[in-house]
Design goal:
This protein is about 55% helix and about 15% strand. By secondary structure, the protein is an alpha/beta fold. The protein has two domains: about 140 residues, Rossmann fold, CATH 3.40.50; about 60 residues, Arc Repressor Mutant, subunit A (Orthogonal Bundle), CATH 1.10.10. Strands 2-1-3-4-5 form a five-stranded parallel beta sheet, sandwiched between helices. Helix 1 links the parallel strand 1 and strand 2. The longest helix is centred in the C-terminal third of the chain and has 15 residues. The chain is elongated and about 55 Å long.
Length: about 210
């Protein structure tokens, strides 16, 4: 049985290369490809591909938010992030949103094809450098986890949106406050959690919520 794959990528040359790679692979079937997240959100629930290759940096709706919206609608679909971002913030935001794998666009074709098969078989493929960052981040957060109940309801709302990959401006718009107010909430969260970065705060939040 062929693995059905969809692509969400706003860069047309990259999207074409990925589509051609999927078409030529003997055990893969290209279901669809989208130039933006909005199209993907509309169509993927009806197509239900096995795997979605998802870019992060897209206009209007980014790839992390696209995964967050789609995952509840297609729980059987696996989302494999394929991006240039290798910082911890993007990695944890994507995984928290529902992505199962995270690869860099520099990944060679054989490794990418192997990752698609791996994710269908229950694996969580990650570029080696990405995997090391994930392990390191969880190791750093192995100290006693901060109690989320110490946060105010608004701070909890901000942290929840952070864990879903929302940008500061998106959080501000969602909560009806200014970006500076969001920054104040985040600073308080850092103080209460005794962390120094968004990725550390999200890691502790996810660890306590799991």
């Amino acid at each position: 049985m062929r693995t059905r794959v969809s692509i969400v990528e706003d860069d047309e040359p990259t999207r074409r290369l990925l589509a051609e790679m999927i078409r030529k692979a003997p055990n893969l079937e290209l279901v669809s490809d989208f130039a933006n997240a909005e199209q993907a959100i509309r169509q993927i629930p009806g197509e239900r591909p096995d795997v979605v290759l998802m870019d992060i940096n897209m206009p209007v709706i980014n790839g992390v938010e696209c995964v967050r919206r789609l995952k509840p609608l297609v729980p059987g679909t696996q989302f494999l992030m394929l991006t240039v971002y290798e910082d911890a913030d993007h990695i944890f935001a994507a995984l928290a949103a529902g992505a199962t794998g995270y690869l860099l666009k520099s990944t060679r074709r054989p490794e990418l094809l192997a990752a698609i098969h791996q994710i269908v078989e229950g694996g969580s493929p990650m570029s080696s450098g990405i995997a090391r960052k994930v392990v390191r981040s969880f190791a750093e957060s192995a100290a006693p986890v901060a109690d989320v109940e110490r946060l105010s309801s608004r701070e909890q709302a901000v942290l929840d949106l952070l864990s879903r990959g929302f940008l500061y401006k998106e959080i501000a718009d969602n909560l009806g406050v200014s970006v500076s107010t969001v920054c104040t909430y985040i600073r308080r969260i850092y103080e209460k959690f005794q962390v120094h970065s968004r990725s550390q705060a999200v890691a502790k939040y996810l660890k306590q919520s799991s």
